[in-house]
Write a structure and sequence with these properties.
Layout: H1 3-28, H2 33-43, H3 57-75, H4 80-96, H5 98-102, H6 108-131, H7 136-166
Helix pairs in contact: 1-4, 1-7, 2-3, 6-7
């Protein structure tokens, strides 16, 4: 492996670790939602006795979220099982990116899938957020997660394409992944 390949491999791995860290943080923070929002309210100077009508803008939205989470926690705590699964899914998806860290050329499909998933965040946030009554500004914040994660993944795709060329093959960025002849040895 020459110096250029080593640099491309190192950059790819660093960027993928960053994506993994982001997914893990997103996942872990989906577990304690009521506690996190209470801490956020405390940090923003919103007292526990504050009412929705006491604020406008972002603080009003945070109070509404806090009140909804508190009511859910008190009356229907089983609904948080859904966010537990959301958190678990983030952790599982993060684990998926270990493959391209080990062998980026062979596992380029994971990075391509990651880009597609990031792009899909945008219509989901805009459409489902509107249906659920999420303020537009908050939906844009949700969209930003997909946009921000797409950038390192696209850089990875470019690096992986160059690594594939340097290994004597090619990795088509638009294709599902390197073509391997299926084996039927197990039949």
């Amino acid at each position: 492996m020459d110096a250029q390949q080593a640099r491309l491999l190192r950059l790819t791995r660093v960027l993928l670790v960053g994506v993994i860290v982001g997914l893990v943080l997103s996942g872990v923070t989906a577990f304690p939602l009521p506690q996190e929002v209470r801490l956020l309210c405390e940090w923003m100077g919103i007292k526990p006795s504050a009412h929705l009508s006491d604020f406008s803008g972002l603080k009003s939205w945070i109070v509404q979220v806090r009140n909804g989470l508190n009511a859910t926690e008190a009356r229907r705590p089983f609904l948080f099982y859904g966010t537990d699964w959301l958190a678990f899914a983030h952790l599982v998806i993060a684990g998926l990116f270990i493959g391209p860290i080990k062998d980026p050329v062979r596992n380029v499909w994971v990075v391509k899938w990651g880009v597609m998933a990031c792009v899909a965040v945008i219509p989901l946030a805009l459409i489902a957020g509107a249906i659920r009554g999420i303020p537009f500004e908050w939906r844009l914040i949700d969209c930003s997660f997909g946009v921000v994660a797409t950038v390192p993944l696209l850089v990875c795709l470019r690096c992986i394409g160059q690594l594939g060329e340097n290994q004597g093959g090619s990795v088509e960025v638009g294709a599902p992944g390197p073509r391997h002849k299926p084996s039927c040895d197990y039949l």
